[in-house]
Design a protein that fits this description.
The structure holds two protein chains of two kinds. Chain A contains 16 helices and 14 strands. Chain A is an alpha/beta fold. In chain A, the strands form three sheets. In chain A, strands 3-4-14-9-10-13 form a six-stranded mixed beta sheet, sandwiched between helices. Chain A has a four-stranded antiparallel beta sheet with strand order 1-2-12-11. A four-stranded parallel beta sheet of chain A has the order 7-6-5-8, with helices on both faces. In chain B, strands 5-4-3-2-1-9-8-7-6 form a nine-stranded parallel beta sheet. The chains are: A alpha/beta, B alpha/beta. At the A-B interface, strand 2, helix 1, helix 8, strand 11 and strand 12 of A face helix 3, helix 5 and strand 6 of B.
């Protein structure tokens, strides 16, 4: 890519929400005034020490932060190369990194006086986190979820319902995450006067990609401090899976201006990049969907194509706009892992470390299996273990017993 | 620059009546039937024709128009074929304004400059692109104005007086007032609230104001048209089209007439309205 290198990789977006050509505010006029209000509310909250203090209190005592940075000794031995550290986001309350962002947005919603919260969810992790915090703060919660995902992520559907949320199965389009997002946007346009849309990833119209990134950056900030304490230096590489890319952005962003740190994002290659997959950077090109310009999977006419991944959380035909920009400026290397590679990694980590990962970070582990052996033994590699696999146990169990594919 | 839209609204003002604006999806249920339907609209009383550009992910549309887009895409519709449809219509009609309505991505992928040249030469007069607010005017609105096409903006119940000037700044042709907060076809417009909103918009602009999203019947069309310069009906026409299809979603001998008859009934409703005082 022939694009000028910026002085800092951390200064974006500009005041119109652009990261290079990516990002922006491509929404219906009905939503525009609210999006401007949100931007204003977020700018004020960010500068308010009371907001930060309250959030830090919940992060510590409700979410259970900081999450450990754990040396995966047996995985490291098995691979015979880099020392592998797992950032244990799966130990957070609700079982994934999603809660970091939801806490921030729910506190913003309260600040803005909104009583009705809507969210979209793929794997259900963002839905569960949203349902959890709505229960905690006594807010109405409606979660849109593709009907296909409702089917394959039943444990999370049940959890959301137990937490008092209404789960709305979405029957339109491909009945997965992108359609859940369409339906959430339709709800928002209809109920804009009292509703806050809690977006689960670093995508959507500005300021969402920025505010979600900021709320998730606690992952990278903690990692930096923890690695300093354990090894006395920066890690040498970072690896994270990417659907929309919020766990990856949270880990990566604090390290973007540390040039010695190699950074790898792992997209879902599904059945393989020449077949059905969900790798928008590897197999897509820039387009406009869901409020932002970013890499998308689409046909020659600009119609959005179906994504496929074994993991519902990565099954999305786009990616956050800042990732598209980091790809174009060459700061982050975007790789991809297939369904089969992720399944193998899922089993390996379970057996070697006693940690059952979610299928989403199993994609990151799958690439660690390739990257780590090629690195020296003093190389420090951090993998974001963004969620735990409890929700995937029924699905993976069926696959391993040959019941479904 | 004067487009067919400007000319048409000037004529209607002289006649002292409001415009009846129809919306149907290009290529629904198939490209050939779609052309027949659109050709039948002016005879049935449509003053301005909006044609939807099909898109897989129409975030401001309700189930009827979503399904219409998917029917069209399944029948092989593309943006290029939508422009061919307009070209086909223009062979017999050089007066009725045509407005293309849809979402930005297919236009962005077609290439903005090429699209504007091809749309103008096909006989398109204006564009409504739902996901391009004034904050993104550089993308398509300003180039469209330069290319001689009207860029028609949506104003909504959430567009307050503070924001209206920004929304109206680069709008031309007419202003499309979305009468409900919500998606197409979801609720019924309340004519007294609409009357107030149209009056508010008119304090900021001399452009005609048309009202849509929530008009299904000749009665509502009449009520709305008496407060505005035009009434837009989409979902009801799309539903009439759909109800005429066979079990496999294919056109039948009744399809063109089903749309034409409802168009005529709605047009009569609009023509029965007292034109709003200017």
């Amino acid at each position: 890519m022939n694009i000028a290198k910026p002085n800092s990789y951390r200064s974006g977006p500009d005041d119109r929400g652009h990261f290079g050509i990516f990002g922006g505010r491509f929404v219906a006029e009905t939503l525009m005034p609210l999006i401007l209000d949100l931007e204003k509310a977020y700018t004020e909250a960010k500068a308010d020490p009371a907001f930060q203090a309250e959030m830090n209190g919940y992060l510590k005592n409700y979410v259970g932060r900081p999450s450990p940075l754990y040396f995966a000794e047996r995985l490291t031995e098995h691979l015979g190369g880099a020392m592998i550290y797992l950032k244990r986001e799966e130990l957070n309350h609700t079982g994934s990194h999603k809660v970091n962002n939801v806490l921030g947005q729910i506190m913003l919603a309260r600040r803005m006086g909104k009583k009705r919260i809507i969210a979209e969810t793929g794997a259900g992790q963002h839905g569960v986190a949203t349902a959890t915090l709505c229960a905690r703060f006594g807010l109405e919660c409606i979660v849109y979820m593709g009907a296909v995902d409702v089917e394959r992520q039943q444990p999370n559907v049940i959890r959301m319902e137990m937490l008092g949320a209404t789960v709305m199965p979405v029957q339109s389009g491909t009945r997965t995450l992108k359609d859940a997002m369409n339906e959430a946007l339709r709800d928002w346009v209809t109920n804009v006067h009292d509703t806050f849309y809690c977006i689960g990833t670093v995508a959507g119209p500005h300021p969402y990609p920025t505010l979600v990134r900021d709320f998730q950056s606690i992952i990278g900030n903690e990692t930096k401090a923890q690695m300093q304490e354990i090894e006395g230096r920066l890690p040498d590489s970072l690896v994270a899976c990417i659907g929309g890319g919020s766990n990856a952005m949270g880990l990566f962003h604090p390290f973007l201006d540390d040039p010695t740190v190699e950074i790898f994002g792992v997209e879902a290659a599904g059945h393989g990049l020449t077949q059905l997959h969900a790798a928008s950077i590897a197999g897509g090109r820039p387009g406009v969907l869901h409020g932002n310009r970013t890499y998308l999977l689409m046909d020659a006419d600009g119609q959005i194509q179906d994504a496929h991944s074994i993991s519902a959380g990565l099954d999305y035909p786009g990616i956050g706009p800042e990732h598209s920009w980091l790809h174009e400026v060459g700061r982050v290397n975007y790789l991809s892992a297939t369904d089969d590679e992720a399944l193998a990694a899922f089993q390996l980590l379970s057996k070697l470390e006693g940690i059952i990962p979610a299928l989403e970070p199993a994609h990151a582990i799958a690439k660690v299996l390739e990257l780590a052996p090629k690195r020296p033994k003093d190389h420090l590699m951090v993998v974001n273990l963004s969620g735990r696999g409890d929700k995937d146990v029924p699905q993976v169990g069926d696959i391993l017993r040959g019941k479904s594919k | 620059m004067t487009t067919r839209i400007d000319t048409r609204f000037a004529e209607l003002a002289k006649q002292g009546r409001s415009a009846f604006v129809t919306f149907l999806m290009a290529g629904d249920p198939d490209p050939a039937t779609s052309l027949e339907i659109i050709k039948a609209l002016p005879k049935s009383g449509a003053d301005v024709i909006e044609i939807g550009m099909p898109f897989t992910d129409p975030m401001a549309d309700g189930p009827s128009i979503q399904a219409a887009g998917l029917r069209a895409l399944k029948a092989g519709m593309t943006l290029k074929k939508t422009l061919e449809l307009v070209r086909g219509f223009r062979k017999d009609d050089n007066a009725t304004p045509i407005v293309l309505m849809g979402y930005y991505n297919p236009i962005y992928i077609y290439g903005v400059d090429k699209f504007l040249v091809d749309a103008k030469s096909a006989g398109v007069d204006g564009l409504i692109v739902v996901d391009l607010p004034p904050e993104e005017d550089d993308e398509l609105c300003l180039p469209a104005m330069k290319a001689g096409l009207n860029f028609i903006r949506l104003a909504t119940p959430t567009t307050d007086d503070k924001r209206l000037p920004a929304v109206l700044a680069n709008t031309s042709g007419f202003v499309y007032y979305v009468s409900i907060t919500g998606i197409t076809g979801a609720a019924t417009a309340d004519s007294s609230a609409v009357s107030e909103a149209v009056a508010r918009i008119k304090r900021h602009t001399k452009l005609p104001v048309c009202v849509g999203f929530g008009i299904r019947t000749p009665e509502t069309a009449r009520a709305i048209a008496s407060h505005a310069n035009g009434a837009v009906v989409g979902t009801a026409l799309v539903d009439a089209l759909k109800n005429s299809l066979d079990a496999e979603g294919r056109a039948t001998g009744k399809t063109v007439n089903a749309v034409a008859e409802l168009t005529a009934a709605l047009a009569q409703g609009v023509r029965g309205a007292q034109q709003a005082a200017e």
